[in-house]
Write a structure and sequence with these properties.
The chain is α/β, with parallel strands linked by helices. 51% of the residues lie in helices and 9% in strands.
C-alpha cells in the first residue's frame, strides 16, 4: 500500500543552525498554531471513537493505549492522570509502551519493530472483548502497534488509533481511526513536535469527554479527584464553600470527614433534607 508519509517530509525551514533563538522560537510557534486546526478537522473521527469508548467503559471494559517512543509516553501520561483527576481505578485506563517501563525514560532499541510484543503486553493485562485498544503512532507504520491491533481484531476487541498520516497502515487496521495531519515538522521527522502535540490534544479529548459522560464531573468541577496534596485539598474546600454556601471551617470539616468532594456534597444534602 502506498501513502504519503507527511511526518517524514522535509521541513519548510532550512539552515536552522544559523537562526537566532528568537527566530527559532518564532517558527516553532508558527507551526504549532496549525495543530489545533488539524485536530478540529478530525473531530468527527474523535467523536466516533469516544462514543465507542464510553460504551466499553459503561459495560465494565477498560481503555488501553498502545504506542512506542513519544506516542507510547503520551499514552502513559494520559492514562496516569485519570485516577487523580477523575477518581477512577488505575486499571480503567492503561498505557503500554514498546520496550516496557524502561522505555518511558530511555529508548529501547528496535522495540517498536517487534510484531509479537504488543499483543503479549495486552495479554499480560488480561485483555478481553469488553475493552477498547487505541494504538498511537504518528507515522502510522509502527509494527508493535499495527500487529497488536490486528491481533485484537482477530479476538473481537474494539480498536482505535491516533496517527498523523492520512491513509496509513495503522488506520487501515483500526475500527475507529483518528487521523490528524499536521504536516512536516520544523526539524524534519521529529514527530515529538507537532505530531506529539496533536496526539496529546486528542488524548485529552478522549479521556476527558469519556469521564464526563461517565458522570465523573459535576458541573465543571472534579468532584471525584484524589485529594493527594494541599493544593487539591484547598480546591476541594473551595468547591464545597461555593456549592453549599458554607464557611471555610465547615467545608474543611466536611472534607476531612468524607475525604471526597462528591461524598461530602451528598452527605450535606442528605442531612439538610432530613432536617427540613
Amino acid at each position: 500500500m502506498s501513502f504519503t508519509k507527511t511526518t517524514e517530509q522535509d521541513s519548510h525551514y532550512n539552515h536552522l543552525e544559523t537562526k537566532s533563538i528568537k527566530a527559532l522560537l518564532s517558527v516553532i510557534n508558527k507551526e504549532d498554531q496549525s495543530v489545533p486546526l488539524a485536530v478540529e478537522k478530525a473531530l468527527p473521527q474523535i467523536e466516533t471513537l469516544v462514543t465507542q469508548t464510553v460504551k466499553c467503559l459503561q459495560n465494565g471494559g477498560r481503555l488501553f493505549y498502545l504506542g512506542a517512543g513519544t506516542s507510547g509516553r503520551l499514552g502513559i501520561l494520559d492514562a496516569s492522570e485519570c485516577p487523580p483527576t477523575f477518581g477512577v481505578p488505575a486499571s480503567m485506563v492503561v498505557g503500554l509502551i514498546a520496550g516496557g517501563d524502561t522505555a518511558i525514560r530511555n529508548a529501547v532499541e528496535f522495540a517498536e519493530d517487534d510484531t509479537q510484543q504488543g499483543w503479549k503486553d495486552l495479554q499480560a493485562n488480561a485483555i478481553t472483548s469488553n475493552d477498547m485498544v487505541v494504538g498511537i503512532a504518528a507515522s502510522g507504520t509502527t509494527p508493535y502497534v499495527i500487529a497488536a491491533l490486528k491481533a485484537c481484531q482477530q479476538h473481537h476487541i474494539s480498536t482505535g488509533c491516533i496517527t498523523c498520516n492520512l491513509g496509513s497502515p495503522l488506520a487501515q487496521v483500526a475500527d475507529y481511526p483518528i487521523e490528524v495531519v499536521v504536516g512536516p515538522e520544523v526539524v524534519t521527522g521529529s514527530s515529538r513536535m507537532k505530531a506529539g502535540t496533536a496526539q496529546k490534544l486528542v488524548l485529552n479529548m478522549i479521556t476527558t469527554a469519556s469521564m464526563i459522560q461517565l458522570g465523573r464531573i459535576k458541573g465543571n468541577k472534579m468532584v471525584d479527584m484524589q485529594l493527594s496534596n494541599d493544593k487539591l485539598v484547598a480546591r476541594g474546600v473551595n468547591m464545597l464553600m461555593d456549592q453549599l454556601q458554607i464557611s471555610k471551617t465547615e467545608a474543611q470539616q466536611l472534607l476531612e470527614t468524607h475525604k471526597n468532594v462528591r461524598t461530602a456534597l451528598k452527605h450535606y444534602s442528605n442531612e439538610h433534607t432530613k432536617n427540613q
